[in-house]
Design brief:
4 helices, single chain, 89% helix
């Protein structure tokens, strides 16, 4: 991947994190990257994610916690905008 595309994709993820969570803090950007990648794989190859979840139950639990935290931050951000 060329540097220009990488910078543009990084900018896209940062903006997505900002719109979703109200912050483009590096920690939040990493959370959103992980969430977006996992969600995409889960939708496009469910058997792979099922296998991964069975193979790494601790990681499955960590992903559930990450999704919960993103949901909580998103709700907080939406409520602050009202």
């Amino acid at each position: 991947m060329d540097d220009k595309l990488k910078l543009q994709l990084d900018g896209l993820i940062e903006k997505y994190a900002e719109l979703l969570l109200g912050s483009s803090d590096p920690k939040h950007v990493e959370m959103v990257k992980t969430y977006a990648l996992y969600s995409f794989i889960a939708k496009s190859m469910p058997p792979l994610v099922k296998h991964w979840n069975e193979e790494y139950p601790d990681a499955k639990e960590a992903m559930k916690n990450l999704v919960y935290e993103i949901k909580k931050l998103n709700e907080k951000h939406r409520n602050e905008q009202k």
